[in-house]
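Q: What would this complex look like in 3D?
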Amino acid sequence: MRHRNRFSHANVELNMAAMLDMAFQLLAFFILTFTPAPIEGQFALRLPPPVAQTKPDNLTNVANETEALLDVNAVHLGLSANAEGRLAEVTLEDQPVFMGEWNPRHAGLLNERLKEIFSAPDSPFRQVQIASDSTLHYGEIMKVVEVVSKQRLADGKFLQEIGFVERTGR
Amino acid sequence: MPIHRHSNGSEMNLEPNLTPLLDLVFQLITFFMLVINFKGAALDLSLKLPVLGSARPVEWKKGTEPIVLNVRSDGIVQVYGEVIDPAEFFPALALKAAGQQGNGKAERGKTTVRPPVILRADERVPFSKINELMKLSRENGFDNFALSAVSSARAGGGGAP
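A: Here is my prediction, written as structure tokens for the whole assembly.
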């Protein structure tokens, strides 16, 4: 068997051009299909069963004892819409928190009221039931949801049980 | 290989060295592969989501791929670009989940974890539509629900005027 000369000076070169062509094609594909992901976030909710609010006549009655118990543990928010589908009024247990369009001062006001309720050490409340006008826009509801989901329960966890009820008779 | 021959008889290689260029191109490819967004197909980027500073991406449990519902301002609901009828979609999804449990895909003694539902709605969608979807979701056992928003106005997507 003949041994190859280990010290041969034969110049072995790879043809890079073909590799470069392929790499450029891959690069073109990735550039053309590149769409930066939007910086999106979510508000995670656990949907409790819908329960009747304290008064409104147009909602169903509390169906059974479990629901009645859930209702006792819930804080009730009412959202009213104006003709353009924007927030016109927010009530807490039928008492107005503010009237007029949403602004940072109103957000602070609602936050303080909810904080008073949820931060109490012996607070029995575990969920918020939001009764909203059917015409209120999603963007407006989310402003309220943002404030609600900032609340911490007595055990230190963030509030996640948020229920929604539609008010139609207004 | 292009070779230039000198007048004195010596040879010179004129081929450019492509290796650094190839290195650079591979680095660019690596970058684009890392930032590629495979979940983009589930998102309708034409929706104008509400802008809320405290919206943060939610980490879902492993093995629970969320179902993303896109709701346009005219109330049309889309999943992966296809228009769906929510009244048929949720029961079908619940049946599928129950079927997986029946086929023994779920661990013994454990109930199948229903995937979370992410609602991406245009900011002008009325509450009645949102409530309808939440009701259907809950009635079919999908209790884990998330409402989407963008965390900064700059990233607010295209959006209809």
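A: To summarize the key features: Strands of chain B lie at 3-5, 11-13, 67-71, 77-79, 82-84, 117-121, 144-150. Confidence is low (pLDDT under 50) at residues 155-161 of chain B.
Q: Very helpful, thank you.
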